Amino acid sequence: MQYAELFCQSNFSFLTGASHPEELVKQAHFFGYSALAITDECSLAGIVRAHTLIKDEELDLKLIVGSVFRLESLQVVLLCPNKKAYSELCRVISNARRRADKGEYALEKWDLLSVKHCLIIWLPQGEVEDENWGTWLSRHHASRVWIGIQRNLSNQEKQYLHHCETLAQQLHFPICAVGAVLMHSAQRIRLQHVLTAISQNQSVEQVKAQLLSNCERAMRSKDKVSKIFKPPWVTESLKIAKLCTFNLDELRYQYPSELVPQGQTAMQYLRSLVAKGIQRRFTEGVPDDIAKTIEKELSLIEELDYPYFFLTIYDIVMFAKKQGILYQGRGSAANSVVCYCLEITAVDPRQVAVLFERFISRERNEPPDIDVDFEHQRREEVIQYIYQKYGRKRAALAATVITYRFKSAVRDVGKALGISESQLVYFIKNVNRRDRGLNWQAQIVELGLEPGSLKGAQFIELVNEVMGFPRHLSQHVGGFVISAGPLHDLVPVENAAMPERTVIQWDKDDLESLALLKVDVLALGMLSAIRKTFELVEQHTGRSLSIAQLTRLQDDPKVYDMIQKADTVGVFQIESRAQMSMLPRLKPQCYYDLVIQIAIVRPGPIQGDMVHPFLKRRSGEEPVTYPSEAVKSVLERTLGVPIFQEQVIKLAMVAAGFSGGEADKLRRAMASWKKTGELMQFKEKLLNGMTQRGYDSQFAERIFEQICGFGEYGFPESHSASFAVLAYASSWLKYYYPAMFYTALLNSLPMGFYSASQLLQDARRHNVPVLPVCVNHSRYEHFICQVEGLWAIQLGFRIIKGLNQNTAILIADKRPEQGFASVRCLSELGVEKAALERLASANALSCFSDDRYAARWQLMEQESTLPLFNALPYDQVPSIQSPDAFEDLLEDYAATGVTLNQHPISLLDEAEMLGAFTRMTDLSKKTHKSLVTVIGVVTGKQSPGTAAGVTFFTLEDDTGNINVVVWAGTARAQKQAYLGATLLEVKGIIEKEGDVIHVIAGRLIDRSELLRGFDAKSRNFH
To answer: What GO molecular function annotations does the UniProt record carry, in alphabetical order (predicted)?
Structure first.
């Protein structure tokens, strides 16, 4: 017996389906189905994943594209027999989604009337209205309608079956069997119940009347199908399946063509642009090898018909250039010579040899990889330019599938099971997710969950099951799909949460699977900061700068000396805790060293055990050897150690005989091996290929282990090369123009690893004066002024928490030349009381009051409802006690998050509340492995995936930042201090390696009670 399931919803029918598309496909194949239709509700979001699995695993299962819809009491499934029907279905979904808010849809009769190609399976509801809907369907779609009969084995099913058969006889509609599948296995029934409760924002108990009464919505074996459905119904389902011949591989992307001037082909126009770029980029003539590479790239672009792709990117970056928006392209194709000539990237190809097979592969058959980063505060201008140029019908953002992670899973499942919200918040707050050696289930049991109870066992099981489930679609960070014709012919489009944004229903992985063009228009905060620094430098010194100019000036020894000392707070990429530890060891001296520096502090090289061999070879402690000239050609620049993803791919080619296409399949397998284990299928070919070419088995095994280290974490040289340009530019600006650089950073927040407080403290350590926010001096943004011949930072109103930007601009714009004389002047200007109170709390009214307490009295004096002050002359303030230094500190942090007065550690130490401890600046005087006590404000925690449960704390005292290493066992034993301390005392052992100093934590002591009311948030990255 054959069977085709024509009505099946995956978990992309959000909070309804209880199985992944891949699970449904595997189960259907296991049961021996001949076809499976994935028919999510008004959506094609899950179809590509099912298609990809069938294709990758070469399963003998036909996938049918479809969707289920509801209109009042009508429920229908639309299936796609051909490409025309597919485009029609995409249009229907897009129209219904665009009429409604994000996540909803509004189908209209007109949508169904317009269906001319889709096959229709009508699902009667057993109600009186069925007759009217049946008549309507018969009138408009008689030849393409079937009645789909479900067997849910409910107590009223006999009447339902009779009702459907009567309708079929009256309307002459054939009957087909449908499973109405919501889960691949009956074991998912509890999860389906929980999802139903979550969708209603209630508990399972509260929605029990709406829950499935049995497990009949699970996928059935063919044996069971044959027992509950009449044979003619099953035969009719197979007949429908045979009519459906459409396959997603038929989709063909067409590039927008209006970018090409009349009278020229796309390739001719691209060649002319490259020729002009050559004159700009290579003013002293093109080296022969570069010229050959340019021609090779252009020939491949022409052969694979990608000129429109490069022209599309070129058009976007030229718009940004004209608008003065800083940008930088990255990616394997972005760092080609063609992209350098088109000004898509500033990376000089003479400095970086990108693997050509990663530029475009004939065998790969997918679009080139180009990401373009734009200033994060101005990217919206670029996005709206794309929408305006191509229209909403032809341009939309890719989706990102938001999935359940630990916190959301605990919160939603717990609520559905009736666990109190306060208990769930307690669980979430106190489970240490950084400790990968102690699972969350055990920790929750310690926190009071009873694992032996039915509810406790179900809670743990269901949280585990739902993690990774799609929760909803969100917009991608910047992946645009642009088409020649209406986009809804290719993929459904729906509204994003943000106004004036539309998204397609597929994410970036789906687009890659179908080889559809995605233009990545991404946001990068450092580009905003660099552009603002350039403006400040030109404004105050008259010097005009650009990234390209700094690139030409690179390898400045003074800048690299600063980098080698890890003086990199605020600069791009090399500012993290791990990077700062590596900089004094690797000691970058040139641009390419930075490329390596950025890539080596990544999980790939670390897990592949490549970092220490590289450092030893660089320092001369270990000889640099190569097993062959072929391997040397790949690894010579990195001293025989593979650091970049491209090198691993190239090694597979030169050492194991992989073709370019096979090497790219290896790359794709590396990206998902932990999830699928796909990488292991290459092991035999790699090992055999290397041994056959004369490499010893130990070398071959080591290379494979390194490839495994890169699994999911490989960092391409092309991306690192682009990032290194910005790392150098930001370092150069910090060294030569620190005041401008810090001001630009502060005006570009939020971005990077550091808070405004940390940036300002670092600025002061670099002898940059900082002036407090003041109503008579500040503007909205921070700006540059001079203090005793030094460039200084004048803090702006933007640093005051809760102060409206329009109010701040009003104060700055309407301020008299001589300044405001009193609080009354601000009130008369129209500044509201709440804003005045925020200004007072930030001590921004100090120009006409002694302190923030006095300023608040002045505000109270203006309250006509307070007769106490009526007898006082205006602005006469009663004698009140001024805040002490500690009160000032708390107020500063509460109002602005920063203080220009004494550091908390200084105040507490002066008050003799801390006991004996060592400051950051004195750690260098301590001997290696000696005992030490440090104390500081917790400003950061990092738990990299490679750190085997280690957490790196950053403690800030009044002299700088202290690096603390907390092992998993220490964290477990002292969980409260580990998770909750804002002021932390650490007793431990000092470790020194050259200029790198760590404190290995032994005892953690939470001293937060000393700073009660202190508002300093830690930046946690894990």
So the answer is: DNA-directed DNA polymerase activity
